[in-house]
Amino acid sequence: MDPEFRGDQDHHDGTSDATPGGYPAERRPGELGFALFLTGASAILLYNAYAISGFDALSAPGSVPMATTAVMLIAALVVTWRTARLPRVTTETLARDILPVTVLVFVAFLVIFGLALKPLGFLPTAALFLIAAIRLLSGWGWPRTILTALFALAVIWIVFRVIFTVLLPSGVVPEAEIIQVFRTLLSGGGA
Amino acid sequence: MEAFLALLTVFTQPDLLLLVGVGTFAGIYIGAIPGLSVTMAVSILISFTFSWDVYPAISLMVGIYMGGVYGGSRTAILLNIPGAPSAIATALDGYPMAQRGEAGQAIGVTTVMSFFGGLIGILVLALAAPYVSVFALKFQPRDYMLLAVLGILLVGSLSSGSLVKGIFAGALGLAIGAVGRDPLTFTERLTFDLQLMEGGISFIAVMIGMFGVSEALLQLQNVNKTAVRQKITRIVPSFGVIRKYLPLSLQTSTIGVIIGALPGTGGDIAALMAYDHAKRVTKTPKVPFGKGAMEGLVAPETANNAAVGGAFIPMMTLGIPGDAVTAIMIGALFIHGLNPGPMLMVDQPDMFWFIVGALFMANIFMLIFGLTGIRIFTKIVEMPRAVIIPLILLLSIVGAYAVNNAISDVYWMLGFGVFGYFMRHYGYPLGPVILGVILSRLLDDNWRRAIISEREDLGRFFEGILTSPLSVTLFAAVILIFVSQTPLWTALKTRLFRKA
Lengths: 191, 500
Prior knowledge:
The complex is a heterodimer.
Chain A: H1 31-53, H2 63-85, H3 94-98, H4 101-120, H5 122-138, H6 142-163, H7 175-186
Chain B: H1 2-12, H2 14-32, H3 38-49, H4 54-79, H5 88-99, H6 103-136, H7 141-158, H8 163-178, E1 180-181, E2 188-189, H9 195-198, H10 203-219, H11 239-261, H12 267-281, H13 295-318, H14 324-335, H15 342-347, H16 349-371, H17 374-381, H18 385-404, H19 407-425, H20 431-453, H21 458-467, H22 469-484, H23 487-499
Antiparallel strand pairs in B: 1-2
Helix pairs in contact in B: 1-2, 1-16, 2-4, 2-16, 3-4, 3-10, 3-14, 3-18, 4-5, 4-6, 4-13, 4-14, 4-16, 5-6, 5-13, 6-11, 6-13, 6-16, 7-8, 7-20, 7-22, 8-20, 10-18, 10-19, 11-12, 11-13, 12-13, 14-20, 18-19, 21-22
């Protein structure tokens, strides 16, 4: 490993703020598009911030939002200008290095998780998510995947739902009854 | 006497002692497992402990923080994968040592030096913070505003990336923090007339998204990365070895405390700076840097643990976080009804001394756990990422949902997770975003108080800055940092060097 190197060796993906991702003198796939998106979003936010109180007074509720969104827009414009002038990284593609299928699939999993969480409840949704995710990433057989997922879910559920008493949507599962069974067991068989 | 009793709280209450111990133990493993970061762990944890009393919640978080900063070094040495960002510099010389069959010695020295660095950081915190807070009582609203701007600029400039991206990230954080109804006038701000946004965006959802989800999505690309386990021999280092590296560790601990105490910077930056320092001052290392130099191991490890104590100084005295983890801890204190800043030190000094005591205890636990349990450790860190990543995502969802029992927070978290994922790929630092979210209210309130007190006159505002030694120093620092990162400064420096 080169002691002078201050970055992630494999992906330039920004493990920490001390070793940010990207390349200083080259443009990664999609980087210009992201910079343009930030510029557009900053302009919309600035317009929205202006609509709060315009230039009424320096202490008006819109003054700080206007200043911060203006800074965002200026910074985004500078970044876009600089990025546009950089040569493209020739060894990377958007589909392979920035947005591989696995990442897209996981984002879809999370969206579905969010949608199903309330109607189905935490336990079935989390079980389905863990089984699908572990199977996809590990390539293990179904029995091992299901056992690992259910064991992990049981640990998480006991720690967070039973011990930490975190409220989670119960959905179709009679969670209150299950918890009561656990509490009875923990308190010595209902004594 | 009261301060001393507060300091001893953690030592005298077995439940708190246990929580610090459990936190440190968990922190070491969280820090060691690549893909699990301390920032991620603390941000998820805050959503589960918000209903607890403040002392137990802080005990657990302090333990995780201290253990996590140290834990990252283990995998850096054994597997050449820094478990935490603060251990990136440790891998440079730690792994070559392990390849030479000196993994045990590397772990032993790292543990003792991390303890030493941590101790110095805590001592400086205990000695300096009360004075800083007395000084901070003299701060005017404009000074707080300048300090907030300084913090955001510092984290942008000290990161290795571009300042302009750091500035964008900081401003974005401030804008996110401003969303919702203005607390003074009740006017809607940046809500796009959506009822969903009237209450603002949950900063916990932002934090979990940025640090938990984005990191997990990033790790999806490293699922199949394999590592070779190293053989471990003797762990406890000899007194001679410790004595030999003591002078260097003192220097790098100082660097760690100072960098940690600068608003917005953290252990990762401190470790890299200490590594650079060690390279400069060690003229003839026994083994060259990058090939397994012990100095290259001692410097970052003392610095990153010393930075923990340092990071608490601005947090406790000014209410300005020293790094991303303390930013999250400020959030935790807010949730528990406490307001970090100079008044906290005046009104509730016991809270400060309790944290000092908890940090001290966590440091001792770190030494004990660090020098023992190596065999269990190697088993745990080899847990497959194919299981870890889905678990992180699951915990992130549970954490984001748990605070307000709102699905909308899960979507905010997911949105910021995906956004943070792109930010990481394209070199935008995430630290300033979190710092901006936390400092948004402080900056906004103090700007408005300052400008109202100057009767809305910008001329008088700047006159006030120029006539106050503190304000002018802060203002000069802001300008200097900004100018130092522009092409103007580079051109000036080149011209000056040419003349010389």
